[in-house]
Amino acid sequence: MNNEKFYDKVGKLNGWDFTHIESSSEGVKWDFYQEVINRCLETDVLLDIGTGGGENLLRIAPSLLFLVGIDLSNSMVETAQSNLQKSTIPNVKFFQMSSAELRFPTCFFDIVSCCHAPFSATEIAKVLKNDGWFLTEQVSEADKLNIKKAFGRGQAYHQTDGVLKERYVHELKEAGFSDIQSFEYDAIEYFKRPEDLLFLLKHTPIIPDFGQDKKDFEMLNDFIENYSSEKGIRSNSKRFLLIAKK
Length: 246
What we know:
With 246 residues, the protein is α/β, with parallel strands linked by helices.
């Protein structure tokens, strides 16, 4: 799957607005951007990789001096620019840029964040100041595992859980980061209504090409029947967090 084209298509369809999805979780151990704020000073400059529609960056903007959000997808950056224009926040900028080639001065940022997006450890080490922090939250291979099993396919379905985390830890060490801490959780997630789960599957790459085969909807109905409860339709949300100091 070409993720860039997929995310551009979805961004144009719904503006990356998932706020109307009704769901709840049990066992979430952290709020990623709160972890970022916990390590920030009011004088810090932050880079956010894979910023999407920029909602999280705009939310934490009062805690820092200046913030830059980048994303590979043009439609995502357009959404972020639109969200910025609707706000009164003066200290945020958004750019379309690949995380594999960060076009910023050496040692420019005090802190770099990256939530659910790929990154290059060497590029981050290049633009991050000495003693600066890098934080990333990523989706584990075993995320939404019962959904993937029900469909017999899915994002990272045949990959061993934990491989991505270990690869990123190794890459950070090779790039010169020290004091690398890793955390993870596997939370229970409940979707309140069938349409909430349907929206998620249509607008994320959890199940590649969902809906192109009519059998997908039959399998979805079976899944909903098998995993429904009073709390909602059950799946899981598995994440890992890496915190590294340069």
